Amino acid sequence: MNTQNRRKLASARTWLIASVVLVCAVPQHVFAAEWEYTAEMYIWGAQMDVTTPGGNDAELPFYQILDDLDMTFMGLFSARNEKWSLTTDVIYLDISQGKDRDATFPDIGDVNVTGRISLSSWIVTPTVGYALYNTDKARVEIIGGARYLDIDAGIRVARDGVVVFDQSASEGYWDGIIGMRTSINLAEEWFMPIYFDVGAGGSDGTWQAMAGVGYRFGNWNTVLTYRYLDYQFDDNRALADLTIKGPLLGFGYTWR
User: Fold this and answer.
1) pLDDT per residue rounded down to tens, the chain (256 residues)
2) Is residue 16 within a helix (H) or strand (E), and if so which, with residue range?
3) Beta-strand (E) ranges in the chain?
4) Hey, which residues does 57 pair with through a beta bridge?
5) How distant is the alpha carbon of residue 124 from its chain centre?
6) 219 Cβ partners below 8 Å, 6+ apart?
7) Does pTM surpass 0.85?
8) Domain chopping of the chain, boundaries
9) Among the four given CATH numbers 3.30.450.20, 3.10.580.10, 2.40.128.100, 3.40.50.2020, the one describing domain 34-255
C-alpha cells in the first residue's frame, strides 16, 4: 500500500472514531425519544477561489468546474428529536483538466496567463445539535462537531508561456467547529434555513455560512440557498486560501 492510500485509510479511521465520539456525546436516554430522519441530495453550483502561498489569486467558475468534472457526490443525512440532532454532510469532488485553460489571476496584471487546477477532495462534516428554541414558528440549534477536508490539489500558472508557479499537495485537515443552525417557518409549506459555523485545528481556520428558502410538499422538501465555505492554510504547499461559494439546490425526504 502506497503512502497516499495509507494516509487516506488513516483519515477514514479517524473520521469513523470522531463520528462515534460525537454520537456517544449525546446522553443515551435521548435515543429513546421519537426521532425524525431526513436524507438530502443537492447540487452546489459553486465557484472556487484559490490563493497560492505566493499571493496569486485564481478563480475557477462553475461552468469550468462542470466541464472538467470527473465525479461528484453531495448529500446530507440528519436525525432529530425535540431537543437533539445528529447530522452528517458529505461532499466529494474530483476535477481534472487535460490541458491548460484560460483563468483569471487578478493580482498578476494584464498579461497572457493560463492556469491548470486539479482538485480531488472530500469534505465531511459530522455535528451534534441541541435546540435552544423549538416551536411551530422556528427551531434554533447550537451545534458542535468537526469538519474533515481531504484534498489533493495541483496548481500550475504560466505567464506569457513561462511557468511562474507549479506546485501540488496532498493533505488532510481535521477542524473542530461550533455554530448555529436555524429553520424559520414562513408559512405552512415555506421555511427559511440558516446555518453558520466557525472552527480551527488542522487548518489555520475555516468558516461556513448558508441561507435561503425551502418548500415542503408532504414528506418531500426542496431548498434553494447560497452557501459559502472558506479555508485558510499555513502549511499547504499549493494553497494558502480556498473559497467555495455559490447557489445550492437540494431535494430531501423526511420520515419517522
Assistant:
1) 555 455 545 555 555 555 555 556 555 555 556 899 999 999 999 888 888 787 777 777 887 777 777 778 999 999 999 999 999 999 998 876 655 555 555 555 544 556 666 778 899 999 999 999 999 999 999 999 999 999 887 766 666 666 666 766 678 899 999 999 999 999 889 999 999 999 999 999 999 999 999 999 999 999 999 999 999 998 776 678 999 999 999 999 999 9
2) helix 3-24
3) 36-44, 47-51, 57-60, 69-80, 84-95, 101-102, 113-134, 138-159, 162-185, 190-201, 205-217, 220-232, 241-255
4) 51
5) 7
6) 253, 254, 255
7) no
8) 34-255
9) 2.40.128.100
Cell of 30: 435521548
Distances (CA, A) of 170 to 56, 82, 118, 197, 236: 20, 41, 11, 25, 8
Residue with cell 416551536: 135
Closest CA to 244 of 84, 97, 117, 55: 117
Instruction: Map grid coordinates 440532532 to a residue.
Output: 85
Phi, psi of 3 (to 5 degrees): -60, -40
Q: What angle do CA 103, 107, 111 make, to 5 degrees?
A: 60
